[in-house]
Specification:
Strand content: 25-35%
Number of strands: 15
Helix content: 10-25%
Oligomer: single chain
Structural class: alpha+beta
Strand order of the largest sheet: 1-2-5-6-4-3
Order of helices and strands: EEEEEEEEEEEHHHHEEEEH
Shape: elongated
Distance between the termini: 79 Å
């Protein structure tokens, strides 16, 4: 069979379209003029006898047709639109799983995980395009059941080829990655909600549990100061916060959840009563006290940023 067997009628070729204005079949190439197809898929194209082709929206072929493997047909395992070739080896590093696979285009929606399929290239070095189902692997159904049951250990499953093993690990990696993305999206949504509430003291303290830096920035900004950095304090519940106000740097120690001042870094002792005012302040109110002390020329530091 040659490319001429793909001709549906005189000068009409059925070809897969994967985007762009270039069509290819074996050594032949065409530039696609005019309207483009609405989405990736199999379509009929008018070939004018030269190097130009056109798409006719009235002549859409909605389903795949058998492919002439001009650059070879390969057999493998389908995991979504990922293709694990039969000769694939399981990598030592899980992060390399994807590198041992290839995208297979126009995969049939009825193809299930671990199903053996044939894919083809219409020209040398071209992308893989789904061809047809292949003879199923003996272990495919057992692996599908193991995955559905949440089992990662398949050592007891018989007849698991390296390609099936890689496909099984890849499917778990896809699920794990999706779960991590879901958790991260949930976290970012929570942060966004807390940041919207960051204009209040209560909102900033809720935010501190999720993201201390963002909460500290908001608290200091509310007090008219600029956040610089923070680090863990001497106790697990404390944070050392550095900030700038009136063009000078300061450092204080705060409770990581309540933002109550543990050590203001400046002298806040009432000389008449001996009372310390540190714990009467918060990260929001400390900058104004610092500015007042600077303006009155009575600032005495204990900590230096």
């Amino acid at each position: 069979m040659t490319w001429r067997d793909l001709v549906s009628e005189p000068q009409m070729f059925a070809l897969p379209w994967l985007g762009g204005r270039q069509l290819a079949l074996g050594a032949r190439r065409w530039h696609l003029d005019g309207e483009l197809p609405p989405e990736h898929g199999w379509y009929l194209f008018d070939i004018g006898g030269g190097r130009r082709a056109t798409f006719d929206s009235r002549r859409v072929r909605p389903h795949p047709i058998p492919i002439v493997p001009l650059a070879g047909t390969v057999r493998g395992i389908a995991i979504g639109d990922r293709f694990v070739p039969d000769d694939a080896a399981v990598p030592v590093n899980e992060d390399d799983l994807v590198a041992h696979c290839e995208t297979v285009h126009l995969i049939d929606s009825m193809v299930q995980p671990f199903q053996a399929v044939l894919a083809a290239r219409l020209y040398e070095g071209g992308p893989l395009v789904y061809d047809s189902p292949a003879m199923p692997e003996i272990a495919s159904q057992a692996l599908q059941q193991a995955f559905e049951d949440g089992r990662r250990d398949i050592s007891a499953v018989q007849s698991v080829t390296p390609a099936l093993d890689l496909a099984f690990r890849l499917l778990w990696k896809q699920r794990d990655d999706a779960e991590r993305r879901r958790i991260e999206i949930d976290r970012l949504e929570r942060l966004a909600e807390l940041e919207r509430a960051g204009g209040t003291a209560v909102g900033r303290r809720r935010l501190a549990v999720e993201d201390f830096e963002r909460a500290a920035r908001a608290a200091l900004a509310a007090g008219g100061a600029e956040y610089l950095s923070h680090q863990q304090g001497a106790r697990p519940t404390e944070m050392v916060v550095r900030f700038r106000t009136m063009h000078e740097r300061f450092e204080c120690v705060v409770d990581a959840r309540s933002f109550a001042i543990v050590d203001a870094g400046i002298c806040l002792v009432d000389n008449r009563t001996g009372r310390r005012w540190d714990k009467e302040l918060s990260l929001e109110s400390l900058p104004s006290v610092v500015r007042e002390a600077l303006e009155n020329g009575v600032l005495h530091r204990f900590r230096y940023a």
